[in-house]
Amino acid sequence: MASIRAVVVFVLSLASAGCANTGSEELSRWPLIQQQKQTLTADIQSGVKFYLITAAQPGGARVELDKDALLAEGFNASRSSVVIVHGYGHDIQSDLFEKLAGAYLLNNYTVNILGVDWGELCPKPAYITARRRVAAVGARVADLLDLLVSSGLSTPARLHLIGHSLGAHVVGNAAKRTHVARVTGEQSLVRSNTLANQTKS
């Protein structure tokens, strides 16, 4: 019996030591985890860019998250706004913007068109990395929506989010935080240029 007790005590001691070591390792890794989070935040801040697309600047004029900057580039607070987000492996030069924004402009719809470029954060072939950044990019898009609403430039009822492919997940995440009137996810670039014909805001 004494030998059995000794074995049990020895095993329990090893288990306790293992737990203690694991806890110490987790604590030692905590600063690294925090640093990684801070790096991701910085990457998102610089890697997500916003563009106001108008007839005068169909390629888009880059704007900061600032009311005066938006107004200076021609944002019209009396109009509804469409926010377009591209998918994996694309950027502001994507056909999505040319086709979809072009359709709005061609039909003279009185809407503000805002393009979101997160191309630096979703380059091919790093799909898994891009997928992991979706929630953070969505939060950044929500920052834009919050600015539009809080500054009086728009209201949730006059906001329409359109996302292509992985961009659909981005706008979905944005809408979880900031509710808007309409969210559209589109997989096909071919069909994307028909969306403008479905919205006459």
From TrEMBL:
It comes from Frankliniella fusca. PROSITE patterns: PROKAR_LIPOPROTEIN. Belongs to the AB hydrolase superfamily. Lipase family. Its main location: secreted. This is Inactive pancreatic lipase-related protein 1. It is found in: Secreted. The keyword Cell wall biogenesis/degradation does not apply. One of its GO terms (molecular function) is lipase activity. GO terms for biological process: lipid catabolic process. It comes from the Eukaryota. The keyword RNA-binding does not apply. Gene3D superfamilies: alpha/beta hydrolase (3.40.50.1820). Residues 1-20 form the signal peptide. Keywords: Secreted, Signal. GO terms for cellular component: extracellular space.
